[in-house]
Amino acid sequence: MKHAETRPFADPQVAARKLLELAAGVEPVNGRIHIEKINAPFLSKNGCKGTGAEFGAGIRYAVEKGWLDLHESGTFVTLLPHGEDLLKRWGG
In angstroms, rounded to a whole number, what is the distance separating the alpha carbons of residues 9 and 1? Predict the structure, then answer.
């Protein structure tokens, strides 16, 4: 019998925290972070191994909490001050 694998990013808050960590490690261009700079490592089989649904839920959670701002085009995010403060508290 196969058992379902526990998904580390099934919880949107956990996914959002990981996305914040990834965003903090990227040098912004004109204050913006290209979405693929956090999308690729999150989804990569050699990286976090997250899914597209987990990525989407994490982004939505981070935007709702005021940690990230998603540009209307969907191609950029901005790490907001509240998100930066959280990273300092988390030690990231």
Answer: 24
Q: Which amino acid is it at 39?
A: N
pLDDT, mean of each 10-residue run, the chain (92 residues) = 76 94 92 95 90 96 95 93 80 61
CA separation for the pair 76, 70 (Å, rounded): 6
Domains of the chain: 12-90 (1.10.10.10)
Reduced to 3 states, what is the DSSP secondary structure of residue 27? Answer: coil
Angle between helices 36-43 and 12-24 (to 10 degrees): 120
Q: Give the pTM.
A: 0.86
For residue 29, give the 3-state DSSP assignment.
Answer: strand
What six digits make up the tokens of 60? 């939505």
CB 29 within 8 Å of CB 17: no
| 59, 14 Cβ separation under 8 angstroms | no
Q: What spatial distance separates the first Cα and last Cα of the chain, rounded to whole Å?
A: 39
